[in-house]
Amino acid sequence: MPFCEVGKYRYGSGDNSGGGLNGTRIFYRTYGHGPVKVLCIIGFAGTHDSWGPQIKGLTGSETPNDDLLSAADKIPGEDGFGGDEGGIEMCAFDNRGVGKSSVPTKRSEYSTTIMAIDAVALMDHLGWSKAHVFGHSMGAMIACKLASMVPERILSLALLNVTGGGFECFPRLDRQTLSVGIRFLRAKTPELRAAVDLDTHYTKEYLEEYVGTSTRREILHKEYVKGITSSGMQSSYGFEGQMNACWTHKMTQPEIERMRAAGFLISVIHGRYDIIAQIYYARRLAERLYPFCRMVDLHGGHLVSHERTQEVNQALLDLIKASEEKLSAQDWTNLPKKSTGWLSTLSFSRSNAEGETKLTYIFYMMEKFHLVLLYIFGLLTFSLEYLRLTMKSLKPDR
């Protein structure tokens, strides 16, 4: 099986970070062949095969290269192999803490920076000096860290259903989300976990659509149960570690400026009905990356890459093409030149006089305080709902 030993490469060698890089093995698969290289980083609790619709759409095959016949026995042009000089080779992998990759036992061994180092080591392992990088959810956070660490190795960046981490990871507070959260905590079997994942990843109308005589929910539930059963339920170490990575993630202004200075094109792709990663935060990140960023919002949920596969794949191909043709940032972006939001106004005021800067800081702290209140309210509402359901279950039937 193809594994990358992180400690063997530049960032992983002589590990003094406490990140458990030495001894960490990252499981990966490559698909398709061609000069265009694409690294795919999946999100929280996901495995490499979650990129299946994009791999199929961009390379023409879902069969890993290590399962194919040798190049000498392969007919050029089949399954995206050989023939096409403009072909795409994609690599998808399991992040540490899930799937077949190593599962460190300490939460300190999980952060988006550490996981970005895993990704750099994998690029070194593959011999890729540069690549287009696609990231989904937590994987998009990791992709941002990767792009700020080694911007010279990034050809373009696609951020799917991304947030800025920390408080921004909290889902939308409503009855539906609270119900999903309670069911998630109770899900101890692949069947229960699959049912929760469907309501988390897709819009209700998509799940209720009929494909033949069955609904998408029925079809996808069987696929999810099969996938979870084959890879196994995520361990508590991996779950808590990856949760820690999301919670501690933050993109500083110097990191954003390093990305902007590199000049590569960026596409922020988001499902506008995502209940986990709210689109408001994705837009705010896109605005920070102006003018190199394009915002693509689609009718879908958190796993918009599956729900709106054709549109997402087209957006990704547009990004690759624009990057290869060296399209200017001004021609690429679809964001307004100046935002009228109060957050942008505050950002502008930071460059003004000292008094105005202090005022900006006060409003910044007020925003953080508002998020803390939302967090406390969410915990209280979650606890009350859990207590109500518990009492209801204890109440004898008439």
From TrEMBL:
Pfam family, one: Abhydrolase_1
An example molecular function term from Gene Ontology annotations: hydrolase activity
Sorted UniProt keywords: Hydrolase, Membrane, Transmembrane, Transmembrane helix
Residue span(s) of domain AB hydrolase-1: 38-162
Record bears the keyword Hydrolase: yes
Residue spans crossing the bilayer: 369-389
InterPro entries recorded: AB_hydrolase, AB_hydrolase_1, AB_hydrolase_fold, Epox_hydrolase-like
Annotated protein name in UniProt: Alpha/beta hydrolase fold-1
